[in-house]
Specification:
The complex is a heterodimer of chains A (127) and B (188). Chain A is an all-alpha fold. Helix content of chain A is 61%, strand content 0%. Chain B has 188 residues and is mostly helical. The termini of chain B are far apart. Classes of the chains: A mainly alpha (127), B mainly alpha (188). Chain A binds chain B through residues 5-13, 31, 34-35, 38-39, 42-43, 45-46, 59-67, 69-71, 73-81, 83-84, and chain B through 31-34, 38-40, 42-43, 56-60, 62-63, 70-75, 77, 83, 87, 95, 102-107, 109, 111, 121-124, 127-128, 131.
C-alpha cells in the first residue's frame, strides 16, 4: 500500500493517514482535549434543553443561524478586487453579449436560408 | 392583532425605544435569540478579534482559521475541512443522525453541498486510473461499435413487393377479355 494515491478531490482512509501514527505529541493531545471540552459543553447544553419538561418550542441552533446569516449576506463583506470583478464580468456580463451574438447570427442565417428557399424543412422534432 | 398592537404600544411607551407610530408599524425584532455579536461579522484583524471570533463559533483558537480576506464575502466565517458528511462515523450517536452533525457544531460554508444525498469525498474503492480506464474504455468501445454498425449495416434482404394475378391485372382496371402478358416473379 506504499504507492496508494487517493482519487482527486477524495480523501485518504483513516488507517492510511500518517497523522494517525506520527502526531502523538502532548501538544496534539492537549489540543484534542480542548476540542473535546467544547464538544462536551455543547452536548450538555443540547441534552438539557432536549430533556427539559418545560420546553414547548424547537431548540434553536445558533450555529445554524450563523450559517444561514453568513450565506445570505455575502455582500456585506464584498470588496471589488481583480478576481471578484473578473468573476462578476465573466459570469454576469460576458454571457449576455456572447449569447446575444450567437443567437442573432444563427437566426439571421436561418432567416436568409428560408428567404432563399434553401432551408431543408424536415419533419423531425429536434431541428 | 389588536391585542398585539396595544401591547407593543404599551411597551414602546414604557421603554421609549422608538416613539409613536413607527414602533407599532415596523415591528422589527430578531428572528432568533442571538445578539448582534453572536452573528458572523467582518474579517478579524487583531488577535483579540480572532480569539473572540473563535469563541463565538465554538472553536479553539488553534483550529479557527478564517477564509483569506479577498473580498469574496466570507467575513470571519471559519474555513473548515472540505469533508463530506459521508465520511463521518455512521455508528456514533449524533444529535442529528441524518446529517451526522451535533447541535452547535460549526457548519461548513458548503454544508448543503456535502450532505449525504450529494457530494461524497470519501476514499474511492478503486484508484483513479482504474476508474478512468473502465469508464472511458466502455464508452470508447460502445462508440466504436456504433460507428462500425453505421459503416456496415446488417439487415434482412429486401426486394420490391411482388403482386399475384399477373401483377393484379384485373384489379388495376385491366381489360378482362385481353389476356395480359405473363409476369413471372420467380426463378426456379
Amino acid at each position: 500500500m506504499a504507492d496508494y494515491r487517493e482519487a482527486p478531490l477524495a480523501t485518504r482512509p483513516r488507517t492510511l493517514d500518517p497523522n494517525e501514527y506520527f502526531n502523538v505529541s502532548p501538544e496534539q493531545r492537549r489540543s484534542e482535549q480542548q476540542r473535546a471540552v467544547l464538544r462536551a459543553d455543547l452536548k450538555r447544553q443540547y441534552q438539557t434543553q432536549l430533556n427539559s419538561p418545560h420546553r414547548k418550542a424547537l431548540i434553536e441552533d445558533p450555529a445554524l443561524t450563523r450559517w444561514v446569516y453568513a450565506r445570505a449576506n455575502p455582500y456585506l463583506h464584498f470588496k471589488p478586487t481583480y478576481k471578484t470583478s473578473l468573476m462578476g464580468a465573466m459570469f454576469g456580463v460576458v454571457p449576455l453579449f456572447v449569447l446575444y451574438f450567437v443567437f442573432k447570427t444563427d437566426r439571421d442565417k436561418k432567416e436568409r436560408m428560408i428567404k432563399d428557399g434553401t432551408l431543408e424543412r424536415k419533419f423531425s422534432l429536434s431541428s | 392583532m389588536a391585542a398585539v398592537g396595544f401591547r407593543r404600544l404599551a411597551q414602546a411607551l414604557c421603554r421609549g425605544n422608538r416613539s409613536g407610530l413607527p414602533a407599532l408599524v415596523s415591528g422589527s425584532r430578531a428572528a432568533s435569540g442571538l445578539t448582534k455579536d453572536g452573528l458572523p461579522g467582518a474579517f478579524p484583524q487583531t488577535p483579540a478579534e480572532k480569539a473572540a471570533a473563535a469563541k463565538k463559533y465554538n472553536m479553539t483558537l488553534a483550529e479557527y482559521e478564517p477564509y483569506p480576506d479577498k473580498g469574496e464575502g466570507f467575513g470571519d466565517y471559519p474555513k473548515l475541512q472540505d469533508r463530506s458528511q459521508h465520511e463521518r462515523d455512521p455508528w456514533y450517536k449524533w444529535d442529528h443522525p441524518d446529517l451526522r452533525r451535533n447541535w452547535g457544531e460549526p457548519m461548513h460554508w458548503d454544508f448543503d453541498l456535502y450532505i449525504r444525498n450529494r457530494v461524497d469525498t470519501s476514499p474511492s474503492p478503486v484508484s483513479w486510473s482504474t476508474m478512468c480506464k473502465q469508464l472511458f474504455g466502455f464508452i470508447g468501445f460502445m462508440l466504436f461499435m456504433f460507428y462500425l454498425g453505421e459503416k456496415f449495416p446488417a439487415y434482412q434482404p429486401v426486394a420490391a413487393k411482388q403482386y399475384p394475378y399477373n401483377n393484379l391485372h384485373l384489379e388495376k382496371g385491366g381489360d378482362p377479355e385481353k389476356t395480359p402478358e405473363e409476369v413471372k416473379n420467380y426463378e426456379i
